[in-house]
Specification:
Elements (H helix, E strand, L loop, with lengths): L4 E10 L2 E10 L2 E7 L2 E8 L4 H11 L9 E6 L13 E6 L48 H13 L2 H6 L3 E7 L4 E7 L2 H14 L8 E5 L5 H9 L4 E4 L5 H10 L2 E7 L2 E6 L13 H10 L1
Parallel strand pairs: 3-6, 9-10, 10-11
Antiparallel strand pairs: 1-2, 3-4, 5-6, 7-8, 7-9, 11-12
Length: 291
Amino acid sequence: MGRVTVRRPVRMITSRGEHTRPDALAAEEPLEIRVNGEPLTVTMRTPGHDVELAHGFLLTEGVIVEYPDVRAARYCAGKGPDGQNTYNVLDVALAEGTQPPDAGVRRNFHTTSSCGVCGKAALDAVRLSTRFDPNASPCVVSSKVLATLPDTMRERQRVFASTGGLHAAGLFDTNGEPVVVREDIGRHNAVDKALGWALLHDHLPLSEHVLLVSGRASFELVQKAAMAGIPMLAAVSAPSSLAAELAEQNGITLVGFLRGTSMNIYTAGHRVPLAEHERSPVAATENARAS
């Protein structure tokens, strides 16, 4: 298995002068995912939880829906200069009756660690239909609980603490308890790892969970949430216009700029009720007059 961090000497310059010391960098290596022996995609990722990553990727591409759809997943080929297995090639064998991905899903060149949509063989393959309906979820999470999630996730970002160079994705229940947190140099990979974990543990659909991401909320991350039946996606940074559009179409509550006790709710705000003491005096007065 590849290393998640790599130490390199670094020349540091500060106001007190300069010195050389070792520094920990987040590892970035390619992972080729094959399905039934056929190459499907190559993504740049941080090694670790690769089986979860492959399962999450196939789930969010609409290839599989549950764990029994996969017969086996194993590392193969990929020997390095030293003759040892690089663990950078993973072959997923689908169960009998599970249809392999069509040409629209195939990505015949590598995707970067920052983009999971790049390389789609067809534009029509970018938008997928979920088999789980997030809009039907009765999930409700208070703003007070949402405010605790970033700090809770940060406490579990072990590799980020040593490198400062990884994204994270976490699944939380409606009480703010962490279910799983995964790190990766790619935002979409971190999400795939978390969703792959959920699939492998038979937790789908995730209709009573919140997905938190450490960066911005992009179109693809909303789509991944929809494919897993997640009714709420929260991000510490901004969403894109297409992310908000897709969230609205799927009935997903999209929260952005989740920092401290402040946040922006872009869609399906009914899932984030405010406690009475959190309401502004003006809003409280207007509500009283209306009643």
